[in-house]
Amino acid sequence: MTEHLPALQVAIGLTAAPVVMMLGRSGRLAWALTTLTCWATFAVALALFFEVSDGSVITYQMGGWAPPWGIEYVIDAANAWVLVIIGMISAVVMPFARRSVEREISASRIAMFYCAFLLANAGLIGITVTADAFNIFVFFEISALASYALIAMGRDRRALISSFQYLIMGTVGTTFLLIGIGFLYIMTGTLNLGDLAARLPEVADTRTIRAAFGFIAVGISLKLALFPLHLWLPNAYTYAPSMVTVFLSATATKVAIYVLLRFVYSVFGFQFSFVDLSMGWVLMPLALLGILVPSLVAVFQTNVKRLLAYSSVAQVGYMILGISFASTLGLMASVMHLFNHAITKAALFMAIGCLVYRLGGISLTHLAGAGQRMPWTMAAFVTAGLSLIGVPLTAGFVTKWHLIQAALEGGYWPIALLLLGTSLLAALYIWKVVEVAYFQTPDDEHAQVKEAPLSMLIPTWVLAGSTVVFGIYGNFTVNSARAAATALMGGAP
Length: 493
What we know:
The protein is mostly helical. The protein has 20 helices and 2 strands. It has a two-stranded antiparallel sheet with strand order 1-2. The two termini are 23 Å apart.
């Protein structure tokens, strides 16, 4: 069975999804089966991660068909790292989801909701493990279609509009990706990523390959919400059900960034991407604007979910900035931030989900006095907020420290100063929430609000506490990110 673990990663979720759907109105049973499925995929992800931790690579040929004729799954240090992120977040979010989903989704739609969640989760896993370019497109579509449905189930009617906006932008992104993949197939006659990497140097100096690179880069940039292609993200995160916001904020953009890295480094190669086409000089200004502008917008938000959504756009900018340095240290910092931001932002949105559960709203006016009424929830928010700012002894600090080192290594000292300045902006918008929660008096309607249920509070604190654990004991993330960066720079998918 061990040799089939790469296929099981995808098969478990895809098999469980229709079973969950058939449970109909049995919401608790649907939740239990979904929880079991998520924990099983997390266990498989951990097994694969430790299997490749020595630098080895696992290959799996679907149906016994040898690549490039058949579809191949490949696991190395880079995508094993992403699998752990997806598995961990889905596993931790499920205990949180039971009470939250029962409050925000009608009973008749809960089984449908969990079915869509499993499909979205399986799609993200499939994107990560496959070594076939067309399969990446297919799994993007599976994940995206399920995500549109999840967002549309939000109780606010604006969730439908947000889902439609996401659908339009997501469709444009995947269309661009498919066009780019088509160009690659025309020129090379293969869709296997390893085979593409071997054949591309012979035809690299053609307009078709350059066009393919452009289409793929723009298409994936839409999916990962790179500024200014981010306009779908704030509304999607704001009006989606709380559990969906937690999951998507921690996984979806991270997987898209991984796909960008895989194509840039493993398929097209460093020489073509950063030397011949000077990709770093395109990404760097977009990343800097993506850090600065959304951070400024976040400062003026009164809806806390929207505030954190714009913060997510800024955090994508940090990841892209590390890539733009075109160095091993910069790439390592970006890969590290995939994990550190996932646990940080998931903890923040979980805390917001707890507040929504008790207070019924998430504008700053709803949060007045929440620090006294829901002390453990707000303490988790503050802890994760410190990590988002990049305070020492938190996971966010480890990332920003390595990003600043990468900037200084490349001679970009003004960028290093800018990174420090944008941390102050993060402190401003986190402080807005803290000030209202701890220094304002609640109105009579919310004066007797209780703390969040333990089933929601414990997962929130698991992730909030992780931001401190991985800030103090950062060797795990540093070493894992270094191994992932080495696998990507090696050029083998």
